[in-house]
Amino acid sequence: MPDYHDDLRLAHVLADAADAATMDRFKALDLKVETKPDMTPVSEADKAAEELIRGHLHRARPRDAILGEEYGIEGTGPRRWVIDPIDGTKNYVRGVPVWATLISLMEAGENGFQPVVGVVSAPALSRRWWAAKGAGAFSGRSLTSATRLHVSKVDTIADSSFAFSSLTGWEEQGRLDGFMDLTRACWRTRGYGDFWPHMMVAEGSVDICAEPELSLWDMAANAIIVQEAGGRFTDLDGADGPGGSNGAASNGLLHDELLGYLNQRY
After folding, report:
1. What's the Cα-to-Cα distance from 248 to each of 57, 113, 236, 260, 264, rounded to whole Å?
2. What is the per-residue pLDDT for 120?
3. Would you tell me which of 4, 66, 82, 137 could form a disulfide with 149, CB atoms 3.0–4.6 Å apart?
4. For the chain, give me the number of helices (H) and strands (E)?
5. Inter-residue contact 249 to 198 (CB < 8 Å)
């Protein structure tokens, strides 16, 4: 199996640079915010962080392609860095500390591009999570000061904790009834939102989570971290990996039931 240690170390360097840039403008009274064509907000910090990461990658990995939320894709080849400069921009612009920079390296294979490295850095929470294919998932302050992550062993929906972002997307997709049935069946539900539920699944503090509308940059880093922690990450139809337009993560033991509820098979 390939060794991705150097790529993981680079991803941490990229996250360090992004953290410095985003924290510098967090809660700034003069923060500039625009509305994108899809009616979602983008701040000057989103753009600056992605530009910073792209600049580092151009120097360190000039042959690799880059896909980012704010500036699209550039380059071709079997290796592609996928960047969400600020996952949780709505929180960021309102001063809520639940946001993160998501950085992933994906490699082409028989089943298309799949993540092999992922870093999720949430500096306002003083938290960072990461993983590399075959090397496990971790959380901590640095590569040398870290705790290995493991998903939970909860094996019944009635005992499970379910995290999600909002209700609107489920209703728009006609999945709201299944979603509500799942919330009634679970022990506990919480709307933490964005990257955080996936990291909680990886840590074992939440057992299942799902979101109805996602892009690749929302999922790639989360997926490899959940998988390396022993969990499962699929789209809502059950296809493994972050290749769909939505996502579901679990400890693996509850995944089929999770999808069953959301697809109204129960």
Report:
1. 30, 18, 6, 12, 15
2. 98
3. 137
4. 8, 15
5. yes
Sites in the chain below the pLDDT cut of 50: none
Largest CA distance in the chain: 52
Q: Are 175 and 235 in contact (CB under 8 A)?
A: no
255-262 helix and 176-185 helix, angle to the nearest 10 degrees: 140
Q: At 123, phi and psi to the nearest 5?
A: -65, -30
The whole-model pTM stands at 0.95
The alpha carbon of residue 220 and the mean position of all alpha carbons in its chain are separated, in whole angstroms, by 6
Task: State the residue for tokens 């500039």.
Answer: 32
pLDDT for res 19: 97
CA 144, CA 224: separation in Å to the nearest integer?
Answer: 20
Residue 138, strand partner residues: 130, 148
244: three-class secondary structure by DSSP? coil
Closest Cα to residue 14, out of 102, 125, 91, 108? 102
Q: Which two tokens stand for residue 51?
A: 């530009």
Residue 153 backbone class (left: φ over 0; alpha: ψ -120 to 50; beta: rest): alpha
Token pair of 167, please? 């209700």
| pLDDT at residue 2 in the model | 79
pLDDT for position 32: 87
Q: SS3 breakdown of the chain: % helix, strand, coil, rounded to 5?
A: 35, 30, 35
User: Tokens 């089929």 correspond to what residue?
Assistant: 256
pLDDT at 142: 80
Q: What integer pLDDT is reported at residue 167 of this predicted model?
A: 83
User: pLDDT at position 1, please?
Assistant: 67
Both tokens of 218, joined, read 């929302």
Give the separation between CA 23 and CA 97, rounded to whole angstroms: 10
